Amino acid sequence: MTAIASTLTTTDELRNRARVALTACGVGALDGPVQARSPITGEALFGVPGADADAVRTAIANAKTAFETWRTVPAPVRGALVKRLGELLTEHKADLAELVTIEAGKIPSEALGEVQEMIDICDFAVGLSRQLDGRTMPSERPGHRLMETWHPLGVVGVISAFNFPVAVWSWNTAIALVCGDTVVWKPSELTSLTALASAALLDRAARECGAPEHLNAVVVTDAETAQVLVDSPDVALVSATGSERMGAAVAPRVAARFGRALLELGGNNAAVVAPSADLELAARGIVFSAAGTAGQRCTTMRRLIVHEDVADALVERLTGIYASLRIGDPYADDTLVGPLINEAGVEAMQRALAQAVEDGGEVLVGGARREGLYVEPAIVRMPAQTKIVQTETFAPILYVLTYRELDEAVALHNDVPQGLSSSIFTTDQREAERFLVASDCGIVNVNIGTSGAEIGGAFGGEKTTGGGRESGSDAWRAYMRRATNTINYSDELPLAQGVTFT
Ligand code: NAD
Hints:
This is aldehyde dehydrogenase (NAD(+)). The protein is an alpha/beta fold. It has helices at 11-25, 53-70, 75-91, 93-104, 108-128, 167-178, 192-209, 227-231, 244-256, 279-291, 308-323, 343-358, 406-414, 429-438, and strands spanning 34-38, 43-48, 136-137, 144-152, 155-159, 182-186, 216-218, 235-241, 260-264, 269-273, 301-307, 362-365, 378-381, 397-403, 418-419, 421-425, 443-446, 458-459, 462-463, 470-471, 480-488. The radius of gyration is 24 Å and the shape is globular. Nicotinamide-adenine-dinucleotide binds at residues 159-164, 186, 188-189, 223, 226, 230, 241-243, 246, 249-250, 264-267, 298, 392, 394, 420, 465.
């Protein structure tokens, strides 16, 4: 396997690059107890100020006050703020992408793609600000009108994961702002710099647009202090993105206070490859989804369910491509696979591979640990879908299983707790249609991989992925409160269902 063996960019260079990007985005000098690190060298860059429980409470109180004003601003005027945010994100695309690379270890092309996603969702939200529409329904009573109206919800608490350090915030925030909500954001502790830079750009947009103060606050804090956000009755919606473990801790607490939770949790995404598939196209789609972002996307392809007749040919192609994947410093030319986020991620990958082998799996390619936080993406042929295959390991491991009948493939596909993204590679339309119906995921693709969703569609998944939907389509409804209105414009007072009360 070819790779750039050692790190090229030093921690000092990363620190300088980060400083330049932060300053360009409007973040001043930093100092504090939270260590911002880069997985590129595995070393600390800066100390960042953290938020204690009182600071989180203050942020919520300020956001609640700001909501009282913001909710009364007409939605298209709210859209003007998001439009300005989109312009600033465009202007600072390279700066933010730099920080994404430094903190999350993404290769520059993927980091730029993440910021483009932020710009795209701003565009979407601006259009949406003129389309927050409700329905009218026929009333059963003469001289009456029945309709639904949508109203701002309140303070939205956003908890986000390290692997999409800014896109997920923007999915939530751009939509929440046009819906008339205010936001308190708890980013991953692993990616606080990108969070501070994004929040600074929104603060600037808000100032320039004359929007109320405190529409958006960022609280750099740990999971324990984040309970203030989770438990606060003043936070109407907790939109939480992260592991199933995090969702299992957060959801019951929000439910206990009858709050609203929008959960975007782990995936265990699979592709089915049918005998009729275009194997060249499939191989390209699989490699991007399985090894891209070093296997650290929620939509990363973790399982390949391939028909026996084409399994050897496909696996041979894939192992050939994997053997030439360039692994290493994301800043090095042509790198495709950057580092894992931290030591825990590397260890989890090694443990999963050992378990897979114990379960009878054969590592066909990759799996070795390189210097630092770099690993070789692995392909492992499994005799059966054992527990480790049913578990999301947030690292580049692709488990290969084989099938004979499509029903068998679908059964294997659905036999995991998670339900985020899925795909089938086939040129048989009947098979494609059957899979579109049978997959139990929130995202079901044909002839593309499992990752790389566009913002126009609703994003999210079923089962332990949490059931939430963010981003495009009608996902905005989660950020608003629905009211059903009945208006009597007659001189009579007929009661529904023909009830009389005189
Ligand atoms: P994580 O669960 O460790 O952390 C995510 C966020 O939740 C962090 O900000 C963390 O501090 C916070 N957190 C953790 N426990 C908490 C608790 N009890 N209360 C409040 N906050 C808590 O996840 P991660 O390692 O940062 O990210 C990887 C995971 O996120 C993977 O499982 C991946 O699939 C998932 N993810 C899902 C989506 C999606 O849209 N479905 C998108 C991105 C990432």
